[in-house]
Design a protein that fits this description.
By secondary structure, the protein is mostly beta strands. The chain has two domains: 30 residues; 298 residues, 6 Propeller (Neuraminidase). 11% of the residues lie in helices and 48% in strands. It has two helices and 24 strands. The termini are far apart.
Length: 338
């Protein structure tokens, strides 16, 4: 009897083990749902009527994501666009039109009425991007003393105010435009989109120290690049005949991955979450969150007016970036494009 009881106990034990292993493997095979956690705050501009100017203008707003999953939005009471956060504090940088020229300003959101003008000469400036270490501000444009063909990328040292032109892209007597730029996480490289002859807009990588430029994408219309905080990929928008598509490109392997389609006629801006696993983007006056882990889009909230630019404040700086060495000069790029 004892022998039968012992055999039964062993059988039960082994059966329970098999069931546990089976359940474990089933759980491994099940898809894992990862809920994107909204943290921090975003800054952006909304096109609306400016009472002081008596006309439509772009007005700065900020939305804070609360711990209970709600959103708190408030106006910063300044006209402006291309807003970007300082990664180290509560400073927000933006471009504002003053009479017929534009200037770059900064405000502290804790006392937003006081603004500081950073540029000493007016011009036509676009696409602000701040380095992840918070020390340099990149933008493109030309001063009021220059011609439109002299449009280049500038970098301002925020400690000293010294501004340097970091590109010398030949214009061949014609006007060309930049369509977005973004810093790499080690504050040593910039990715930018540039219109080239033939109606193409391509992505390029710029080494800030050597001034060397490398082609990143070719033979397409690619614009609005945004570098991930972890340094591995760059988000960008690619033009198509029916729908534009948001893609990522791996900086090391150059593998391009399509993410989601957007209406080609929609005003659309985007930025990464700190962990590089979510993208917040706007379509006209609506904000959406795309989660890369589950490949799902969630609508967040709406504002009254069209959104222009998005900057998601990131309270940490990752010190990771691909180690690929840039070797291509602009002269090489120019010869390749001919």
């Amino acid at each position: 009897m004892k022998k039968n009881s012992c055999v039964l106990n062993i059988w039960i034990t082994e059966t329970v083990k098999l069931l546990c292993y089976g359940i474990f493997f089933i759980l491994l095979c099940l898809p894992i749902t990862v809920n994107a956690e909204l943290t921090g705050r975003i800054a952006y501009s909304v096109r609306g009527f400016n009472e002081e100017l008596g006309k439509f203008d772009y007005n700065l707003q900020m939305t804070t994501f609360t711990e209970d999953g709600d959103f708190k939005t408030r106006s910063l009471n300044h006209p402006g666009y291309y807003a970007v956060w300082s990664p180290e504090d509560d400073i927000l940088y933006f471009i504002q039109r003053v009479d017929t020229q534009s200037h770059i300003f900064s405000i502290n959101i804790n006392s937003p009425r006081q603004k500081t003008q950073l540029t000493t000469i007016g011009g036509t400036y676009r696409f602000l991007s701040i380095s992840p270490n918070g020390k340099k501000l990149a933008y493109n444009g030309y001063t009021e003393d220059q011609q439109q063909q002299e449009n280049q990328i500038w970098v301002m040292d925020l400690d000293t105010g010294v501004t340097e032109v970091v590109t010398a892209i030949p214009h061949f007597g014609r006007t060309f435009f930049f369509f977005g730029m973004s810093w790499g996480p080690l504050s040593k490289r910039l990715v930018f989109s540039l219109e080239r002859p033939g109606g193409l807009e391509q992505l390029f990588l710029l080494d800030i120290e050597t001034k060397e430029i490398e082609v990143l994408t070719e033979f397409n219309i690619d614009y609005y690049p945004v570098w991930t905080p972890d340094g591995q990929e760059i988000l960008f928008r690619r033009w198509d005949r029916e729908f534009d598509t948001m893609h990522t490109i791996n900086v090391d392997t150059r593998v391009i991955t399509p993410l989601y389609d957007v209406d080609k006629n929609a005003s659309m801006w985007s930025d990464w979450s700190f962990d590089s696993r979510s993208v917040i983007y706007s379509l006209w006056g609506s904000f959406y969150l795309y989660n890369l882990d589950v490949e799902k889009t969630e609508k967040l909230f709406e504002v009254d007016g069209g959104v222009f630019g998005i900057s998601w404040w990131k309270n940490e700086v990752l010190d990771v970036e691909p180690k690929q060495k840039l070797t291509t000069t602009w002269g090489d790029v120019k010869r390749t494009l001919r």
